[in-house]
Amino acid sequence: MPTLLSEAAALEAEIIALRRDIHRHPELGRSEIATSVLVERTLNALGIETRRIADTGIVGELRGAEPGPIVALRADMDALPIQEQTGLAFASETPGAMHACGHDLHTAALLGAAKLLAARRDSIHGAVRFLFQPDEEGDGGAQRMIDAGCMEGVSAVFGAHVAPELPVGTIGVRFGKAYAASNPFDIALRGRSAHGAEPHLGADAIVAASALVGAIQTLVSREISPLDPAVISIGSFHAGTARNIIADEAHLSGIIRCFGAETRAHLTRRLTALAEGVAAAHGVQADVRIQWGYSGIINDPTMTALVRDSAAGLLGQGAVTVEQEPSLTTEDFGAFLEHAPGSFWHIGVGRPGSPCVPLHNPRFNPDESALRFAAALHAQVAMDALSHLSKS
Ligand code: NI
Questions:
Q1: Ligand 1 centroid to 99 CA: how many Å?
Q2: Rounded to whole angstroms, how far apart are CA atoms 121 and 363?
Q3: How far, in Å, is the centroid of ligand 1 from the Cα of 234?
Q4: How many Å apart are CA 302 and CA 381, to the nearest integer?
Q5: How many CB atoms are located within 10 Å of the residue 35 CB?
Q6: Is the pTM of this model over 0.85?
Q7: What's the pLDDT tens digit per position in 281-305?
Q8: Number of H helices and number of E strands within the chain?
Q9: What's the sign of the alpha-carbon dihedral 289, 257, 348, 142?
Q10: 136 CA distance to ligand 1 centroid (A)?
Q11: How far is CA 246 from the centre of its chain?
Q12: Which residues are within 5 Å of ligand 1 (an ion), measured at CB?
């Protein structure tokens, strides 16, 4: 029987055409209209039943010849509000929107995998569920898909992201901590204004906020283990209207990024306590608002080993990098992992010898030959996970 990799190579032109079509017509989160129609049409043509979910999301289900567990594979479909500057023949035709995070490749590769798996339907025991997710960059399409039931009956879930720092033809896996939990926050400090020459008659919000910015630096450095990666960054600080007026308000905005529920609970609770304490010490009021962003990704060890071994079998041992360092960026794939064990892996799209253009850059131009590796590995992981689950 030909390997999934040789079958994927035979499909390469078709997968690249899908990717270019999606790339040419990028759609921002919650408006993936044409993209979801393309996904639906492609899956239906393979005999895969689909349903629409969470507005622009699509769930496809490939049922094998025999009953068995369900393995889910996820791709995100949304683009970014960036004006493309690649100059490619298939560059975005939508002003101000671009697939600069590779979600066009994610969608096309998973459609390629659907085709590979549909051809093996007879040897599938169980089902493969395809999750085409809207709005990863925005509000969390994953959670809305889950709320609508996409994880019901799923025993394992896998997803992948392009990685420009890994050369094309290689795959990266991370055991355990992979992507951070995110908590954006806003703090308003309210004092009392007075003439700049008579500060004792007011309550200075700028002095209080300055002390708070300094104090916040101690939360990670003094309260979190140095072996547990975490960061708190203040990205905006606005206060005051004129040089001779004591500011009655100051506004700080920032993000907390860390791993695991415990560290997250500690930092969010302590940020609030610290802001209220520093404010009280300066005679001003603090209003702290912390949002509950993505919960991050902690990969399951068994499922990550399965991806590593599937990739090594398909591409050779040398093509697999076990990445040691987690990233403090975030990803909403973690929401699926709250409902089933799984793993999120990386597809090398770097061009050897060329400088690495990072994600979210208007010149991001991944190597498309990665598509056949990604499609083949998605399919291999699904087959291997189904056989692993039926044995356990
Ligand atoms: Ni992305």
A1: 9
A2: 39
A3: 23
A4: 12
A5: 25
A6: yes
A7: 999 999 999 999 999 999 999 999 9
A8: 10, 14
A9: negative
A10: 7
A11: 43
A12: 101
